[in-house]
Amino acid sequence: QAVNTSSAARAVPMQSPIDIVTSHVETDHNLGNFTFVNFNSRSAIKSITNNRHTENEVEVSGGGLSATYSTIQFHFHWGDTEHHPGSEHTVDGLRYPMEMHIVSLKKGLSVSQAIEDSSGIAVLGFFLNVYTEINSSFSIDDLIGNVDLTKFYRYMGSLTTPSCNEAVVWTVFQQPINISKNLVSCTVRIYVGSMKVEGHDQ
């Protein structure tokens, strides 16, 4: 079952990130399952991050989204100090070591058009726990394949960096991903400089 955050769970205006207060969450069985296109492509991540496009469109739809969205960006947020402690979102005050965002635009819209549309951007957020080893060649499916994609938090929010446009349909999955330290290092080494990798552990 999917879960939908109650408007009582956060303050207005619709700024992100938020602390997801589970006692304020309302179940919404109508959100349905997600459909992912080309998330199993190991070349897609490199193409997205290096060129912001791929020969084969990487798309997400369903899950209560009102349209099909084209994926343009993939990045991590993490921390190493008291001031930069890890994930952007928290659940009942709990902060995870890392958070991964898959950023997609409503199909057919440019970035400038999408940020003016209240549902122009869809971000899939995943919490991450870090452990030891994994193959350095991977697809999005390899990262999220073991996550229960039917259980997530949904709210209307904003970009988390300036200009903080309130144009984002946020989906934050309940189940964290277990990711290896060497995969994090590999990802940063390949993509830093060619995309926006936001963190404090470089």
From TrEMBL:
First-level EC class: lyase
Record SUPFAM superfamilies:
Carbonic anhydrase (SSF51069)
| Top-rank taxon | Eukaryota
Its Enzyme Commission number(s) read 4.2.1.1
For whether the record's keyword set contains Signal, the answer is: no
One of the Pfam families matching this protein, by short name = Carb_anhydrase
User: PANTHER family, alphabetically?
Assistant: CARBONIC ANHYDRASE
Q: Which positions fall inside the Alpha-carbonic anhydrase domain? A: 1-202
- Catalytic reaction equation(s): hydrogencarbonate + H(+) = CO2 + H2O
What function is annotated for this protein? Answer: Reversible hydration of carbon dioxide.
Q: Which InterPro entries does the record associate with it?
A: CA_dom, CA_dom_sf, Carbonic_anhydrase_a-class, Carbonic_anhydrase_a-class_CS
GO CC, one annotated term: plasma membrane
Q: What keywords were assigned to this record?
A: Lyase, Metal-binding, Zinc
Indicate what this protein is called per its UniProt record. Answer: Carbonic anhydrase
